[in-house]
Structure formats: structure tokens, C-alpha cells
């Protein structure tokens, strides 16, 4: 029960966070959009990755976000049952793009530069 609470209240675990819980992050991200896009954003919140597999998460997230937005705002949390594979699937899609192969780190490059090789190939 307690471990997922860190997603909603990092202070429970003595983690300083100016941003608050995940519901606040989603609210701030959606609020940063133009007013006409906010409706679209709140209606298309997608959970991805293994850390979203807690059974209560979609319902709790919807409730917490609902408390932050205008009463008539429709919130829809989409939680694909296979979302634990979303990171792998995204990586597989990225790896299949021919133009992305130039971003790969070869064994030789890694042996020459070690972990810092990632900085030479990073997009950011």
C-alpha cells in the first residue's frame, strides 16, 4: 500500500519536491497548454510503463486530478493492460527506424569511450 503513495505525496518519504505528486505534474502540464487544447489533454491521459500497473492508479489519478480542475472538465485515464511493455515496444520501434541507426553506440565505441560514449550520440 505505501510504496505507490510516493507518486502522490513525495513528502511522505522525505523527498523534497516543488512539483508535488504525479497528479500535480499532469495538471501543470495540461494547464500549460492553450485553453482549447486543455480539454483534449485531460481527455487523453495515457499511463505507460510498469510503474503504472498498480490496480488503483487510474481511478486514484482521475480522482486527484478532478480535485484540481474545473468541475465540468472530463478526465479520461487510458491504461492499456499491456502497458508494462510500452518502454520495450517504444525502443523496438525506435531501433527499427533506419535513420536512427546512426545514433547507436557500437561495441568498439563503447570500449574506447566507456559510458561517456552516450554523450557523443545523445539527441539532447
Automatic annotation (TrEMBL):
InterPro entries: Actin, ATPase_NBD. This is Actin-like.
